[in-house]
Structures are given as structure tokens and as C-alpha cells.
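Run log, item B.
One chain of 117 residues. Sequence copied directly from the ordering sheet:
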Amino acid sequence: MGPMTNRDFEKFMDSGISSLQKGDILAARGYFEKAFKADDNVWVRNNLAYVYYETKNSLKAYKILEPLGSPYDDSFYWAKEEPTSTVGKLWAKALVFIGRATVSGRKEKVAVIAVIL
């Protein structure tokens, strides 16, 4: 099998989302992991965090989201125990992610929530 293409990435993401809609978390995890190998981006990381959390693997959810923003900045350490803050709980369920963005020419810390929510 040759290198993965953009088409492969889209196929894996679509299949992962379809599996989630059908309630098949394990199949979704497999598709999102394949998509992650094809393209490391925030959408894949959020989807993986969600399926890891749903399969009771908070440590993996934490690790996949860690590059998107440091939990040390928010003072919650949920690699070993579940988050207690509202932001931490939402982040662990991949309903929000914390990061930095340039807004009006300034670097700002932002919380991003999917439009469909």
C-alpha cells in the first residue's frame, strides 16, 4: 500500500463519523486512528479524544489533546484522575479544545467549540 492520500483521510473521517452515529465507538476509534496517521490535525485529535474518553481511556484522551494546549496552563491534571473543572470535563469529552489563535493581530488563548454543537 502506497502513501495515504487526502482521499484516504476523508474516507477514514467519514467512516469514523458514520460509526459514531451508529454507536460503534470501537470502529470509530479505528477509523480516526487511521485518519490521524494520514493527517495530524485538530479535528482528528478531537475525535480521537472523544472515542478514547468513551472507551474509558482518559490518559490517551489527554495525550492526544496535549499538543493543542497545555493542561498546566489551566491548572488541571487529569492524566491520572478525571477532570473536575467544567472546561476540563468538556475537553475530556472533546466538546471543546483550548489553544492559541491570532485575533485582531494579537495572540490570544481561545476555547473552540464545534459549530454543530
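Observations after the first pass:
- Residues 102 and 108 are 6 Å apart (CA to CA).
- The domain at 6-112 is CATH 1.25.40.10 (Serine Threonine Protein Phosphatase 5, Tetratricopeptide repeat).
Flagged for discussion on Thursday.
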